[in-house]
Design a protein that fits this description.
By secondary structure, this protein is an alpha/beta fold. It has a single domain, classed as Maf protein. The chain has five helices and seven strands, in the order βαβαβαββββαα. It has a seven-stranded mixed β-sheet with strand order 2-1-3-4-5-6-7. A hairpin with a 2-residue loop joins β6 and β7. α4 crosses α5. The longest helix has 19 residues.
C-alpha cells in the first residue's frame, strides 16, 4: 500500500520511513514530488489537529492516503510547555539548539525530581474518500540538566526515558520505546481496521 508522508522535516521523515517501511508500506515523500510541499500553518490547538492539517495538505497535493505526525515535549513544571509549540519554542528562526537552550534556561534550578516530562506524538491519516483517524503515542521521562549524546534530533539530547537518553540510543532502541514508535504501531493496527472495512 502506498502512503505519503506529509512532512518537511527531514529528520522526522527519516524516522517515519525507518518505522513504516518494515511494516510493508510503500512510502512516498516530498522527495518524490516535482515541487516542494506547501508550508502548513499549524493553527490547531492540539497535536492531533495539527497532524490532521498536515496530512490533509499532503492528500490535497498527492491524491493518495497521507500521513503526518505532530509531536512535542510537554514538561510538567512548565504547565505542559513547550507542547505543541515545541518546534518554535525559542521564537522565529528557532533551531534545535536554541530550543534546547531556552528549555534549559526555563528549568534552571529545578531539581531532578520535578523535571518530569512526556514526549507526545500524534499521527494522523487521511484517505482519498474522506475518512480519517488519529492515534497518539507517549513516552514518559524527564529533562536532563545538560545535553548528551549525538543521535536523534530536537529535544532528544535532553530527554531521558527508562531506556536512557534518546540521543544516546541506537535508532532501533529509540524506535522501540519512543513516542513516535508507539504511535506508529497503533497507526498500523488502526489502519488495518480501515483496510478491512473497505477498499483504499
Amino acid at each position: 500500500m502506498k502512503i505519503f508522508i506529509a512532512t518537511k522535516n527531514h529528520n522526522k521523515l527519516k524516522e517515519l520511513e525507518r518505522i513504516l517501511k518494515p511494516m510493508g508500506f510503500e512510502v512516498l515523500s516530498e522527495n518524490d514530488l516535482s515541487e516542494p510541499l506547501p508550508e502548513v500553518d499549524e493553527t490547531g490547538s492540539s497535536y492531533e489537529e495539527n497532524a490532521l492539517l498536515k496530512a490533509c495538505s499532503g492528500l490535497e497535493v498527492t491524491g493518495i492516503t497521507s500521513v503526518a505526525d505532530d509531536s512535542g515535549l510537554s514538561v510538567d513544571c512548565l504547565d505542559g510547555a513547550p507542547g505543541i509549540y515545541s518546534a518554535r519554542y525559542s521564537g522565529a528562526g528557532a533551531t534545535y539548539s536554541s530550543n534546547n537552550e531556552k528549555l534549559l534556561a526555563a528549568l534552571d534550578g529545578v531539581p531532578m525530581e520535578k523535571r518530569g516530562a512526556t514526549f507526545v506524538s500524534a499521527v494522523a491519516c487521511v484517505f482519498p474518500d474522506g475518512r480519517k483517524f488519529t492515534v497518539r503515542g507517549e513516552c514518559r521521562g524527564y529533562v536532563a540538566e545538560k545535553c548528551s549524546g549525538s543521535g536523534g534530533f530536537g529535544y532528544d539530547p535532553l530527554f531521558v526515558c527508562e531506556a536512557g537518553c534518546y540521543a544516546e540510543l541506537t535508532p532501533e532502541e529509540k524506535d522501540r520505546v519512543s513516542h513516535r514508535g508507539k504511535a506508529l504501531r497503533k497507526f498500523k493496527d488502526e489502519l488495518q481496521k480501515y483496510i478491512n472495512g473497505g477498499e483504499l
